[in-house]
Inverse folding.
């Protein structure tokens, strides 16, 4: 089975080499920009193509699409001609399987690895959960087998588009918003000439605890103990950052409203 | 040197056994409630006392106070008589050293381990940063030596009350708010019959990345890529949880405003 990657961003940069290492044949990497396509293709030792996606290879059996959500519908449409028998799988959390049928593709699928990808750090796929959806049962089984090259069987889940959308929304809270709270902590520390590095053991422990306790039960801090003195003082410290003050107030109130078991 | 713990909560339950294991002599644990005092004292094999804090031992050289911030001022006052020569150290992030002088104590100090403590999980103190402040230089050195029994020398920092207050505020964002974002993710998953366990590899990776990249640079997700379609859809999914919808909007806007380097 020949694979082609449409998109050479953070996800493809992690997934394509992992699948190749696991024994898959990746024949081409396409990207809108030549530099991105060539960077990943050089690493893979495969062909690069760029520019119009219709010019991508017609020789693959499976096209894995990892491009911006906003571009996906157009790209799916443009890839149709000459690739009618191939399987197409997108990797987006919030877009439905139905995109493929709407563009006339018979064999559409979703291959969603729930993880945060950066080019600077290689993801260990053995820890990744995959959520799979396909229009044909045989394609579902094939993508399950593909995921099984990378991760444990109990990390591979059949998943409807509605469930995947919900997972993605939860991931925005548990990953993107978590990271942003750290950005805001970093701002607070930098304003005082302090380094974010001192937060890392605290952050590690915060997450390690969630392997043991449900998050609601693991909650600590001034809002969890309803300490109005400390909360008032901390709000006052943020007087010159009204944006942070507003987030502080909203999240503290949310902790107090959602942790009625505490105190 | 004889230690007494005033307070038998999450912090004392972690710190007292760690110091005892490191060779310190802990002579007594006091708590407002008998059950808490006896539970920790039994584990330590030391005396328990409870009720009026004035009835606690007068025989210790160092009293470590880990009680609610709101009770601390009163307790410091009530501990004065008969313990004029002892050293007192509180462990609170947001309360100043000056509390001790105001209550007539000559030897006051702060011994602040920046970590989140739960009774269910033993903290590994080798990873903890300690922030120390003392009214007398000799007491500062002594508390530095005490911390050095538990953690590496480069994890022990002299720290003014103003700096510590700032650290504590940053920790509220990097720990308490991070945990709460996970509580909200858990709510979203549970509403769909999904288990928070599938988020753990994502959460682990989110934090692992922060050991390598500054949080601003590690930011991913719909807001980071300014994907209005996905954000609009996710806001709509939260229609029955206006509290989450408000948090979603505020944090997404904050990501867009604070990550001008992205896209």
């Amino acid at each position: 089975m020949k694979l082609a990657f449409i998109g050479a961003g953070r996800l493809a940069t992690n997934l394509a080499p992992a699948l190749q290492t696991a024994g898959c044949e990746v024949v081409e990497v396409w990207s809108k920009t030549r530099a991105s396509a060539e960077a990943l293709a050089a690493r893979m030792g495969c062909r690069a193509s760029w520019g119009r996606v219709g010019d991508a290879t017609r020789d693959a059996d499976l096209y894995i699409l990892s491009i911006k959500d906003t571009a996906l519908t157009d790209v799916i449409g443009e890839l149709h001609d000459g690739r009618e028998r191939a399987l197409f799988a997108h990797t987006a959390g919030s877009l439905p399987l139905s995109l493929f049928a709407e563009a006339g593709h018979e064999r559409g699928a979703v291959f969603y690895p729930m993880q945060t990808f950066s080019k600077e750090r290689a993801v260990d796929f053995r820890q990744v959960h995959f959520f799979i959806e396909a229009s044909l049962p045989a394609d579902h089984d094939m993508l399950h087998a593909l995921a099984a090259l990378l991760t444990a069987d109990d990390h591979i889940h059949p998943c409807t588009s509605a469930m995947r959308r919900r997972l993605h929304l939860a991931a925005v809270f548990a990953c993107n918003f978590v990271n942003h709270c750290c950005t805001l902590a970093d701002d607070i520390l930098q304003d005082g000439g302090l380094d974010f590095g001192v937060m890392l053991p605290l952050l590690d422990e915060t997450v390690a605890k969630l392997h043991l306790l449900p998050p609601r039960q693991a909650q600590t801090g001034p809002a969890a103990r309803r300490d109005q003195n400390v909360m008032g003082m901390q709000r006052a410290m943020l007087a010159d950052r009204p944006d942070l003050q507003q987030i502080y107030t909203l999240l503290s109130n949310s902790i107090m409203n959602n942790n009625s078991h505490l105190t």
About this structure: Chain A has a mean pLDDT of 95. Chain A touches chain B through 93 residues (CB under 8 Å).
